[in-house]
Specification:
single chain; 262 residues; alpha+beta; 4 domains; three-stranded antiparallel sheet; 12 strands
Length: 262
C-alpha cells in the first residue's frame, strides 16, 4: 500500500503540482511508518513485543497515508472542467476553489422566482423552458425541488427543475426562461397584464367603458402567465376594457373605437 501511495504522489509531482520537498517528506514519512510496522511485526512473531505496539505503528502508517492522500485533488464524480482557478505549482489554502466542474448526470435547471409565487409552486408541477439563445425552441421540464427557505436579501426562492430530455444545445450556465404551470382552467377569463392597473398590489383594477364613460373597476386576479392574467371577478366576458388611457380622467366620456374624449 505504501509503495502504491508513493507512486501516486510521484505521478502528481510529475505534473508540477507538488514541490520536490513535499514529495520527499511524504516519501520519508511513509517509509518510516512502513519500516516501524514491519520491524514490530517481526518482533511480535518472535515474542518480544506486545501487540499494542503493532497497533500504534499501524496507526502511524495510516496517518502517513492520509497525509499523502491530501496531496491529491479528486472530482466528486465524472464531468467536464469548465474553469481552472490555479496553475501547477501555485500555493493554495484550505477552502480555496481550484476547479469548476460540470458533473455528468441528469440535466437540471435552477431558477429563483419571487416569493410571491411560492403558494403556486409544488414538486412535480410541469413547466416549459427555453434558452435565451434559442428563444423559439422550447423543451419540457418539471419541478423537482422547492427550497424550504426564502432568500431574505433578494425575496426569492430557489426552485430546481428536472429536464428528462434536454436538447443538444443546452449548456451549463445558460440563461433560460421558464414557465411553471401552477394551475389550469380551460375557460378562464384573461386579460393582457398591461391593462391591469395596480397589478401585484392588494387593489388591482381595470378601466372599463360603461354607458360611454370610463369607470374604475376593481378586479380579483387569479393565475398569471407570461403577459396575461386571469380575472376571477369584477368584470364579465364581453365587457369593453380600456387600454392606454393615461391622461384620461375616470368618468370622462369616451368612444370604444379607441378615441379618447371629448
Amino acid at each position: 500500500m505504501a509503495t502504491r501511495d508513493l507512486e501516486r504522489i510521484r505521478s502528481v509531482h510529475a505534473t508540477g503540482a507538488l514541490t520536490v520537498q513535499r514529495v520527499e517528506q511524504a516519501e520519508q514519512r511513509a517509509a518510516d511508518a512502513t519500516s516501524r510496522l514491519e520491524s514490530l511485526r517481526a518482533m511480535v512473531s518472535a515474542g518480544g513485543r506486545e501487540p499494542a505496539s503493532v497497533v500504534r505503528a499501524q496507526a502511524a502508517l495510516d496517518a502517513a497515508r492520509a497525509r499523502v492522500a491530501l496531496t491529491r485533488v479528486r472530482a466528486p464524480a465524472d464531468g467536464v472542467v469548465l474553469a481552472r482557478g490555479v496553475e501547477p505549482g501555485d500555493a493554495v489554502s484550505p477552502g480555496q476553489g481550484l476547479l469548476e466542474l460540470a458533473l455528468d448526470g441528469p440535466a437540471e435547471l435552477v431558477v429563483f422566482p419571487g416569493e410571491e409565487n411560492l403558494a403556486g409552486l409544488s414538486v412535480g408541477a410541469p413547466a416549459t423552458a427555453s434558452a435565451d439563445a434559442f428563444p423559439k425552441q422550447t423543451f419540457e421540464a418539471s419541478v423537482s425541488l422547492v427550497a424550504p427557505s426564502v432568500d431574505p436579501t433578494q425575496g426569492t426562492v430557489e426552485v430546481r427543475l428536472a429536464v428528462p430530455a434536454p436538447p443538444d444545445y443546452l449548456l451549463p450556465d445558460m440563461t433560460v426562461s421558464v414557465n411553471i404551470e401552477t394551475g389550469r382552467r380551460p375557460s378562464a377569463l384573461v386579460l393582457p397584464e398591461e391593462v391591469v392597473q395596480g397589478l401585484g398590489t392588494a387593489d388591482p383594477w381595470v378601466g372599463v367603458v360603461r354607458d360611454g364613460h370610463l369607470e374604475r373597476q376593481p378586479v380579483e386576479i387569479g393565475l398569471r402567465a407570461t403577459g396575461i392574467v386571469e380575472v376571477l371577478s369584477g368584470i364579465e366576458n364581453g365587457e369593453f376594457v380600456a387600454r392606454g388611457f393615461e391622461g384620461v380622467e375616470l368618468g370622462s366620456r369616451v368612444r370604444t373605437a379607441g378615441h379618447t374624449q371629448e
